């Protein structure tokens, strides 16, 4: 009787121990599986359909030749695709990891754009996806 109880305890110990290992390996395998996965960049954006309307709504009041806002930046005409593209691709002095356009809309380069405060995150992300794609005229 005593012997069989002893054997049973030994068996239970082994079972608990191996269960522990299985769990530990399992959990670390899951963590390892997830870690290298980058956020998929599935955002497809078009200059004509997505970007131009965002820039028109938020920036044209100060950034075209016809802008009438007293704070207008008369030297940066963002209704001109080539000019917008140059800001989209040129590195920012404030942060070498960001382009000028990105640094302004992320409020890293000051003053941030638009002057009154950041655009909705969705709009910023669309512009960033467009920049990442090379600011195409698509
Ligand atoms: C209310 C007016 C106003 C609005 C709206 C506005 N800007 Fe500006 N922007 C300015 C002014 C003024 C400056 C110059 C400020 C400075 O850099 O000293 C400027 C500067 C910039 C510059 C830097 C130009 C350069 O040569 O370095 C960029 C890029 C820019 N704006 C992008 C944008 C974008 C993109 C938007 C819309 C999301 C926007 N701005 C909206 C007034 C505005």
TrEMBL record:
Q: Which domain of life is it from?
A: Bacteria
Q: Where is the Cytochrome c domain?
A: 46-135
UniProt xrefs under InterPro entries: Cyt_c-like_dom, Cyt_c-like_dom_sf
**Record key words, sorted:** Heme, Iron, Metal-binding
Q: Which PROSITE patterns match?
A: CYTC (PS51007)
What protein does this entry describe?
A: Cytochrome c domain-containing protein
What species is given as this protein's source?
Pontibacter aquaedesilientis
């Amino acid at each position: 009787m005593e012997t069989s109880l002893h054997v049973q305890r030994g068996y239970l110990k082994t079972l608990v121990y191996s269960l522990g290992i299985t769990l530990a390996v399992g959990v670390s395998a899951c963590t390892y599986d997830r870690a290298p996965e980058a956020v998929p960049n599935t955002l497809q954006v078009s200059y004509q359909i997505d970007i131009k309307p965002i820039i028109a709504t938020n920036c044209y009041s100060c950034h075209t030749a016809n802008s009438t806002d007293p704070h207008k930046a008369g030297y940066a005409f963002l209704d001109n695709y080539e000019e917008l593209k140059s800001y989209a691709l040129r590195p920012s002095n404030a942060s070498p990891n960001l382009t000028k356009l990105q640094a302004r809309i992320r409020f890293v380069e000051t003053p941030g754009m638009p002057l009154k405060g950041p655009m909705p995150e969705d709009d910023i992300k669309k512009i960033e996806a467009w920049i990442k794609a090379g600011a195409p005229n698509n």
